[in-house]
Amino acid sequence: MPRLPSDPAAFERDVILADIERFASITTKRAWGWEYIDPWQRRLLKCEDRYIWVNASRQSGKSSTLMVKTVHGAITNPNSLSLILAKQEQADEDMRKCKDIYNAYNDYLKERYGGVLVLELIEDNKHTMEFAHRARIKALAATERSRGYSAPLRVTIDEARDVPDEAFVAINPMLIVSQGQLILGSTPGGTSGFFSTERQNPRYVRFVVPYTECPRISRDEIEIERQIYGDAYIKQEYSCEFLDEISAIFTEKALNESMDDTEEPMLGHMAHIQKMIKGEAELI
Ligand SMILES: Nc1ncnc2c1ncn2[C@@H]1O[C@H](COP(=O)(O)OP(=O)(O)O)[C@@H](O)[C@H]1O
Ligand SMILES: [Mg+2]
Questions:
Q1: Burial of 35 (0-12, 13-18, 19+ CB in 10 A)
Q2: Which domains does the chain have, with CATH numbers?
Q3: Per residue in 143-157, pLDDT tens?
């Protein structure tokens, strides 16, 4: 981007864009009230390796951080394509996060410079944002049909444990041509599926973020969850561990509990766990 000394506003904007941590501090504070960006989040924002594998606790801030990275990448790369693949609800949620960050960035520019630097959108819908400089962000439900996008700057697969292997296989050829970046972010979900198998692949830079690295998740709350759902559940959802079959562990726990515990609250949780095993209820 040109840095014209005669245009101090554009110069200042470019200084912010050149520093993704600064961009993230400004936009996340405006959009979501963040006071601090966690150290691992800063490392992830700055990471430029081609292949990145992020295994992090639920609610640690994976999606938010990845979407800040996505929006920054799009704003600073005219004509680029940033793809987000996830299951449908997650993709929708991710697009909303991108819009929050884009709006926060524009509001900042409006406030400081009266709107002259604002980057307009020429397409804005549930799945796509296209900026005036022709960079696009697309958030799609991942299926084996998620192919055919040419030369992405970056593909981010969010909550990869919920994405079918066929969708992962379909995106590899696009990245080979573009030399684009691939980021897999997720909480573990058993030992089958590409998020698990790719952890052995030496091409990735790895981030492992258990709940203990997240200042917003209290240990007391985790202990309460452990009492209710058992140790295996906590290991998978909050401590980044790949366990064989969480449903098998739930079944074992359910059986044990049903033999000696007749208290009502536990029975309620038991019923929910049984539904989760049958696929009739979401993991909480
Ligand atoms: N550094 C941070 N400071 C304040 N809140 C944060 C920070 N990182 C994440 N959060 C908040 O934590 C919640 C979970 O974030 P999210 O990105 O959805 O997590 P994940 O994808 O890991 O489940 C959101 O409300 C988000 O705004
Ligand atoms: Mg998420």
A1: exposed
A2: 8-209 (3.40.50.300), 219-278 (no CATH)
A3: 767 667 888 999 999
